[in-house]
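Teaching note: in complex prediction, the entire set of molecules is handled at once rather than each chain in isolation. The prompt given to students was simply: 'Predict the structure of this complex.' The entities are:
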Amino acid sequence: EIVMTQSPATLSVSPGERATLSCRASQSVSSNLAWYQQKPGQAPRLLIYGASTRATGIPARFSGSGSGTEFTLTISSLQSEDFAVYYCQQYNNWPLFGPGTKVDIK
Amino acid sequence: QLQLQESGPGLVKPSETLSLTCTVSGGSISSSSYYWGWIRQPPGKGLEWIGSIYYSGSTYYNPSLKSRVTISVDTSKNQFSLKLSSVTAADTAVYYCARQHRVAATREFDYWGQGTLVTVSS
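The expected output is the structure of the full assembly:
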């Protein structure tokens, strides 16, 4: 069974700075990885699928990379609306979410 | 614009069955491109996929919940439903319904309902 980990658990960043979030799978998931953003009291929002393809309407400051077991979500210049929790999700035999990374204001 | 809306009781007694329905508007549930899924989130915790259904009725479930989960679809009403039996306090969560890409290898969820909190308590 695949295990997903995300690091760090919390990332403190100043507005305008770059944020780099990591997601790791215990075995290869190829490029079958998505990233979601969730704000308090809201449903998750799809940001990235296929490891690196931005979903419709997602700003270019969000980018995804990686394949196999190591993946990265980069937010190039954090805006106030980007402070949220970010989840990765892999698909092998079924969808499995990582535990999340909270991005908060430094 | 596609919209999904969960409905059902917000309070369920232990050992009983949790039942929720998701109504899809602005699009057809009978699309060949999508599954329709349920995901839950206990208060303050992460996301857990429960299961998904295709409009034909074929399903697949999270192995950890499979023995207690039934997902069904009613294409005439553009709805799909979740039943989770023998609930305990550990099943207390916000339950989301979502559209899931069927063809894409990532099987990502691109449209979500707002979520509904279900509390298991006597």
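Point out the following to students. The interface with chain A takes residues 37, 46-49, 52, 60, 62-63, 96, 98, 100-101, 104-110, 112-115 of chain B (CB under 8 Å). The radius of gyration of chain B is 14 Å.
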